[in-house]
Design a protein that fits this description.
single chain, 632 residues, alpha+beta, Killer Toxin P4, Chain A, Phosphorylase Kinase, domain 1, 4 domains, six-stranded mixed sheet, five-stranded antiparallel sheet, 16 helices, 35% helix
Length: 632
Amino acid sequence: MAVLVVILVLLLIQTGYSQSVNHVNNTNIPIQRFCGSNAPENPYNFNKNRNSTFDQLRTNLLTNRELYARAQDLSGGDSVYALARCWNYLSVDECVACFDVAVSVFLNCQVGIDGAYVLFDNCFVRYEDFDDFYNNPDVQQDGDGTLYSSCGNQSSSHSILNFNQSVGEFLSEIRDVTPKISNLYVASARQITNVNTTVYAMAQCVESTNQAVCRTCMNAAYDKLNDCLPSTEGRFFDMGCFVRYSETQFFNDNQTIDITTVFKGTSSKVAIIAGALGGVSLLLIILVLLLLYLLRKKSSKKNEQDALDAEDLEGAIRYNYRDLKLATRNFSEENILGKGGFGEVFKATFEDMSVVAVKRLHVENTRAKTEFENEVKLISHVHHRNLVRLLGWSTKGSDLLLVLEYISNRSLDKFLWGQKKGTLNWTQRYEIIFGVARGLAHLHSEFHVKIIHRDIKSSNILLTDDFKPKIADFGLARFLPEDLTHISTKFAGTLGYTAPEYALHGLLSDKVDTYSFGIVILEIISGRRSTEVKSDQLSTDYLLENAWKLYEKKIHSNFIDKMLDLKQEQEQVMKIIEIALLCTQSPVSHRPTMSEVVLMLQEGQSLGKRQLTRPTFVNNQDRRIHIGSSRN
């Protein structure tokens, strides 16, 4: 039925479906698209769920008469999440027409669990096997974060100098005004009198964002489009906004706003305020200044909430402390999910039955305050399917609260040596290894700054209902400046997982996370703790040393957890043990980057020409170093 509807709409488009301005012209030509390639285990069921979300989206657009819709279908264990977004100058019928053509494009895509998206001049449609992208998109992007930008092939026939100056000023105003409008959307026309032409421009930030994010996106769009001049048209799109300008009209005259009124309105308010202040008496001015002084003095004594600049918290909201207290049943013992050095993590259930995790830090010491601010600022900016998502925060007195997405299966260590020991099969363990690698690669090389987690361990890896991993606990995370390979800092982390150069000398780099990840791989494969001793008649070895000795003897298959029922996978597991040992190499330069690790895991690569040498072993009890000789 859905396919028939698409065909009918395509016929309508070809026969001239239009209004005053033909918004749907060329809608059947995608300006950017991506089709996933990783086939799901059950392609038929995944395809069925995907088509179900398409039907839901179309129904929601038509029924709600809106230009944005979301849908999902999780049947049979194959999760599909989708959205459709149209620009605000369209009618609902035009939006649905654009959506239908997008669906026809998807029908030509191979069904892949890594999702797909298609961008047209009038709409954007996307589906994935995870839901993080609704508010925090994660797509394949260029190095500067832009998903798509283009400049027209035709240059203005008018005076280039005048055209560039006038249109540049127009785009600058569009950039500045859009974040100030309540719906973050502008469509405007500008008569360029000195060259006798009209330029049309529109900008729209996504409905789930805030002014700060919109402003960042608009700045990036302006930089790209200003470089297009003197082209007669240009387009910019990333997952935060869509901006377009053209000498050809693409929205109706009655859909424009005069953006100069926004600036005039602001100026008028300033003038009124200034006039009122000018008319008050000297005594009133003195009282106001005194009040400001008292407020400033009071604000200097406030707790950590003042250190959290709203500009730094992208998407994170401030929760009501009382609501969190009720949702955790007054932070009751039975609601505790876990405990750390500075506080606890609680399960919180709100009245609408939605569930979150609340991390409560106690601020009797400076380090806890620093950890709280650090974690809020870092994870409010970082979004990835394999990283725990920050929802918001709250403070009261000595309590600092982080509100995080609730991960039902809790931490990985419970499945390796806790009550659920032995319940993970090899496929699940591999997906956990691969997912953690992708999350770390995102922190190290796919974000706009390099972030080092510093405390990668099995208890900081949480598992979703379908055993997808999410890295948690960013309290110790640090930025690494682009121009530095490492920094020197005081040790903070967990012995048994920490690289020797950091534990002993305080040398911190992204390769510290790589080392910790190698240890976690060994734990996942063996089912043993990093600090667990493997004893026999000849020696007492910790996990890494035991793995190395078995590898030296070419019998590292003996390292594999006896509870794993391996059939054809043993060779793959042995290769991944070798990758884990590669991650723990010394010196640091011998370790791969996490992006390289992802490729090795994804493509089933062996070590190739790399030669493993004996790792540096750190005794966890007294930090003595035992350095072995190099071996080929």
